[in-house]
Amino acid sequence: MQLYNLWRNLAISLLCVGIVMGGSHMLPYYMAPALSLFLCGVLYTMIWNNSVSDNNNCMVVVETMFYSLICYTFVSILLVVIQSLDLYYFPNEIIFFNDPYLPSLILLPTALLVSLYAIVFKKSMPAYKNFKAQYGGVKERGYFGMVSIRETDIQLKNMACLFAVLSAIVWYYYLYEYVSINQNARDWYIFLWIVIIAVMLDEIYFIIRYYNLYLDLVEHNEIITPEELRDVTARTYLRFYVICGEYVYMNRNSVDRLNHKEGVIDTPFITKRTVNGIPTSEVKTIVERMTGKKDGELRFFFGRHLSGIDKHSLLRYFYFLDGDISDYSDMGEEGEWVQFDEIKQIYNTKPFDMATNAVNDLSRLSTIILTERMFDEEGFRKNRIKSYKGNLTLADVRKSKLDLQDDKWIQIADFNSDIKFYKLKKFLREASGKKSHSSYHK
Questions:
Q1: CA 4 to chain CA centroid, nearest Å
Q2: Are 272 and 235 spatial neighbours (Cβ–Cβ below 8 Å)?
Q3: CA-to-CA distance for 102 and 11, rounded, in angstroms?
């Protein structure tokens, strides 16, 4: 189903291009902007329904096409307005009040530019940010998380290449071969049918691609059926970060379970239980038994369901020990006390030397604590000095009363007063019904 949803999002997005081309040819030409706006509404509904449902789908490709159609509509109307004001006269074929109107001359280059923007600035797009906030980082979602982000990149690059080739074909033909006096069958083949045929062939290519990927997953026993999903045994995975002062107990030769990489830095205190949820008292007993230390302070960090399976969850905890690291030479697991400053340096310079979960956890921790320190709940800076970033220490973590499970401060980190025209954008977001920072809680 996840592979199907990947294909479906791309197929519907590309189908919109064909509908705009064909619909503008069959309907009265002045209806072209209305048709594209209708399709914008369809795509927006898809994005909205996905955001309020539990579907584990990234809608970046759909949002890219949504922006493409919005830009196409705006440009089409702008050209008409400019010509109506006698500011400039454009060729009849790109003015939708004329017959024939050739939308491919505007839509294809516009879609190309938006696709290139999505490739470069994908992480800043609302669909990507909302998806990450709802389901966690790409690698947090396991193997399919990495497959989905890889395929999203491939789809965006495919769209850019497709629109680049089609734009070159239609504009070359329009400039060097097209005769505006009389439209013939070859003209409509270039401006309409070649686009529709290319879109259909592209969709067929991705059907074959994802079917082969499905067969490969089946061969390696990496597919779970809905029936198996309902019968899957509940499991709760626990990760403990054992802290003493400004040191964290880490193993420099761990195995990254998400990408099977050896020799990475990670906490050695990882375990699992075949139950759905564990009481805090039992969690405390588990970490005491693993470390051999019973005088520590247990603090919940945050938790997530794994790969969309409600019965599988990964919970993170801090376990704070008092005193000096010399008092804790034997911790029951292979590892050593590592200064937090060294971990931060590795995180900033060589993140691939750390386990994926460790990188994601540190990223979340620093983002929440430092964002709360710099901004208020409305997204405005507490300190007017924009160069001020702050420094995270483990003492800050222990003293913090923030709910690290809450995604509010992550939302503020992505959208705050450092952004240009923040007040206007914030007003538009709230006017459109999106939650404000102060009311957002995961």
A1: 18
A2: yes
A3: 23
